[in-house]
Amino acid sequence: MKNYQTKILESLLDKYEKSKSFIGANAVTQTFTLDLAKEFPEYADDSRAGEIRAIVEAAEELEDKDLVARRYRKNGLLYAVTLKRESLPACYSFLKRKPKSEQNEELKALYRRFATEGPLLSAFCEKQLARIAENKKPEHFHGDTAELEKVLTAVKEALQVEQETFERDFSIRVFGDSKAFERVRGTVTSILYEYGDFPEKETVLEDLNIVRNPGHVFLKGAGVLRVAGQTLDLRLLGGDIAFSSVLLKEIERIEVTGQRVITIENLTSFNAYTPGDELVVYLGGYHNLSRREFLKRVYEQNPNAAYFHCGDIDAGGFYILLHLRAKTGIPFAPLHMDVQTLEQNLRYAKKLTENDARRLKNLTGGEFDEVIAFMLQENVKLEQEALDVHF
Length: 391
Description:
The protein contains 17 helices and 16 strands. By secondary structure, it is an alpha/beta fold. The protein has 3 domains: 4-95, Arc Repressor Mutant, subunit A; 100-210, no CATH class; 214-386, 3-Layer(aba) Sandwich (Dna Topoisomerase Vi A Subunit, Chain: A, domain 2), CATH 3.40.1360.
């Protein structure tokens, strides 16, 4: 049978802690009353005499402890209990529950400490301090202050990673435990994505050089590389070749022997593409620091080539292109990410989600306005794999 004393008192304290009175914003004195029939459906069911009696006894015992006052109807039926405000400390003690006011002070101290750790954490922490002042629950707080400290520590440290690092090694360095980061990974990713500048939530950590597996850059087509004193002509391979993030540093020279460089967002499309007069690059998932540095070297050594990016015709694809330009300084032009391509492949298109539409609208006022207007009007998006990539 339920512990009705605990349930009654917990519900009354929840009402109090959610109220304006809790933050001193109410001009009148509030009372906090629990309707027993609404809280416990069994209390209104005459066939459940044992549970009804247990609820009545729980209310009587709480009143005997001077924690609540019982409320009766004119017919003598107990219908509710009211919290005794003067007994709040005793209520918390009885439940062994930390007062929300104490927890808020701990949270505020934590947010103020991390608010000095750069723009992203400052924006996040200031927002949470404002929410506490308004008696709202902080975002991404799950009731454990110690866990929140780990989350904020991981966010801070993730923003400082300069070399590609395995998640396991990052976790050991930050927490001294190879599995600790995995437990807060989702919350860390959410905060970084919501308060940072990242095109896709799924690739936030990769963008910050934190990876689960080694990253690779895949190349094929019109290019000659000088690697560790050896010359490699990609045209002679008859296929593609992958360089790990570590090996990328060993590439001394990249000569584009064709007219253009194309980066392709999706591996399936990269594999299906037959290169002509261009160097074709697949970034192995996402363009983190090591891969961006590689692209920058290609551009520095081949400034006269034309640079294109081909990706999904959706908000994520546009964001990735914009992010790629911003992070590399290379004037990538969109390739087959336009209205004509959509029209030619409408049979493969998918419907927009609400989130898709919202993100597309956030991109209006720029170079993608024509295609975004078409996408919103027709309620479509197109994944790159659906295209004929032999363009």
